[in-house]
Design brief:
With 108 residues, the chain is mainly α. The chain has one domain. The protein contains six helices and no strands. The longest helix is centred in the last third of the chain and has 14 residues. The protein is globular, with a radius of gyration of 13 Å.
Length: 108
């Protein structure tokens, strides 16, 4: 498992578990570099650029239909983005990232 300690994107994905990040050829460098270029571009633009939020949970329409549809594909990859958002709200990004890595990767 390639280590990831970068930014947590507004959607709440753990980038270290993303297939784009883990890919050998043309790998993603994580949220701080590629949110605007990948499939998640619409989530990033809506949250960060249009509304000025750090995370989707801050929006009064969370979880909107766009977020729900986007999060469905991540459930197949083992990431519950709605749960991630709830934990980001209660823990903050730094503690959530530490907890996520510990629970999902350090104990394997």
């Amino acid at each position: 498992m390639k280590e990831y300690n970068g930014l947590v994107p507004p959607c709440g994905i753990y980038c270290g578990g993303c297939p784009n990040y883990l890919r050998d050829k043309n790998p993603c460098l994580g949220a701080e570099k590629h949110c605007k270029e990948r499939k998640c571009k619409s989530i990033y633009v809506c949250c960060k650029e249009k509304k000025g939020y750090e995370f989707c949970f801050e929006c009064k329409t969370f979880p909107c239909s766009r977020f729900k549809k986007f999060s469905e594909s991540w459930m197949k990859l083992g990431q519950d983005l709605i749960l991630n958002q709830q934990q980001l709200r209660s823990l903050g990004a730094k503690r959530w990232l530490e907890k996520y890595i510990f629970e999902n990767y350090k104990l394997l």
